[in-house]
Amino acid sequence: MASQILISEVGPRDGLQNLDQVLPTAVKKAWIAAEAAAGVTEIEVGSFVPAKLLPQLADTAEIVAFARTIPGLTVAVLVPNAKGAAAAIAAGAHKITLPLSVSETHSLANLRRTHEQVLAEARAIADLIAALPVEQRPHFEGSLSTVFGCTLEGAIPDAQVMRLAEALMQAGCDEIGLADTTGYADPAGVRNMVRMVRDVAGAAAVTGIHLHNTRGLGLANVLAGLDAGLTTFDSSLGGLGGCPFAPGASGNIVTEDLVFMLEAMGLDTGIDIPKLLATRAILAEALPDEPLYGFVPDAGLPLGFAPAIARPQHELEMAV
Amino acid sequence: MASQILISEVGPRDGLQNLDQVLPTAVKKAWIAAEAAAGVTEIEVGSFVPAKLLPQLADTAEIVAFARTIPGLTVAVLVPNAKGAAAAIAAGAHKITLPLSVSETHSLANLRRTHEQVLAEARAIADLIAALPVEQRPHFEGSLSTVFGCTLEGAIPDAQVMRLAEALMQAGCDEIGLADTTGYADPAGVRNMVRMVRDVAGAAAVTGIHLHNTRGLGLANVLAGLDAGLTTFDSSLGGLGGCPFAPGASGNIVTEDLVFMLEAMGLDTGIDIPKLLATRAILAEALPDEPLYGFVPDAGLPLGFAPAIARPQHELEMAV
Question: Is residue B1 part of a domain?
């Protein structure tokens, strides 16, 4: 198990895209700056989609430009196609993620694209990136969404998942992401999936996972991912985003709880938990009607809790 | 990892003892009967403590007598001392648990007893049991409470935990339980603790754990316990019990979510999830002001979900 873990905060993208309201650009900037100041080193700040589809994310180019001014921060964005990727590159994103739903039914329903059409976009994005000077090339992730099952199709055959992972690598992706879009994953499934996709894409190309907490298994699935060797985990401040069920049922896993678990295990996230918790106030003020989730924010830290960085090395080795 | 897992439902004891109201005896019976009918094979039905301290559990003897009439059900109770154990034996409990808080500060605050005084009670209970005919002897568990840390003392030294585990075995316990009374446990800590206590008590004597979900890590800690070889997990229907924080922050882990996770992993709990979910209606009707927690009850089962028992054996082997 790695001792350093990367938390990729997806709230400004995944958290906001489902809201009825549009968070003001200034608030987004304050949120991103505060999380970065708490030690978060990768933030998915938006998505390059038509503003008429997602007005919540219409300011993504401005947000990317702002986020790039924060030293040490990896600025990630989601794109649905090569047109979005071109905009992401123009704005200066460090990392571009293209989702490919392994359920073709879901892909057609959500993106109105077949698998082959999405793969063609992936190839076009890879071409755009290859045309850039090496030092300007963003990292390109192809993310397998609904990979643990689809609300329309149910379980997706392993062979189909592996074929699509291979196709994304052949299209020119640097990395394959795994996304439990539907909250269907369980720990055994996570371990299997990581092993399986690494078999076709290589271990170095499969390091991250996007988990939801729809059925309460989010952190157990993180633990399974850690055991399988993953080192990057997506999460959302306050569990904001994709929240179809209440109470307590957030879509995204809660960054605060995730960081607590990892640090309690002696894994170094680089994130200051009290500072991270304080960041919630920005959302609470700007989105007073949105529930903010999280157990640790309510329960507080255990008495005498010490983050990984403050603990003696021999204790950490024992703990892991 | 074992393929069969025992869920020990603790709601009728741990769930009810913190309520302001007293659940009628008839409702308790209906609840216990319904859970047993859903496939739950061990239920902690009450506690033999003075009725003036816990009026919620004053009918424990009657509940034990009722629960014993349910075929195949292990009827467990908590006792604070030898007097309670004598009552439990008279009522016919199959399993008796004596908690010993590894934090002496907590032990004094909650039970007004030192470690040595609790160990003396353990020896007296073992003597009571030894005086019974073999076929009438209940299983005797000594449960190490606050074992992952105490809200008054913080972390408890490993040496103290090991000394007390050994002392409980020497006092005559059949089994050592681990209880995260405070919700301080993390997955690395669970793995360490199981290894450590097994070192002194033997693997066969350390099979179960009582976890809380106070900081959202309940199911991740279950996974860590599974990996460490544990096979018995306490939980509470609807997460009832010990619920100091809201929203979503239950004290006990939620039986429904726990069973879902295990069955999704291909582990056989013997529990029918739809029947288990239907059991919630009994609590919802009888305790309309108490929040019932759980993600799976809100989100439902994944499309095409099959419990462990219904899946082909080769798939289960792959999954685990």
Answer: no
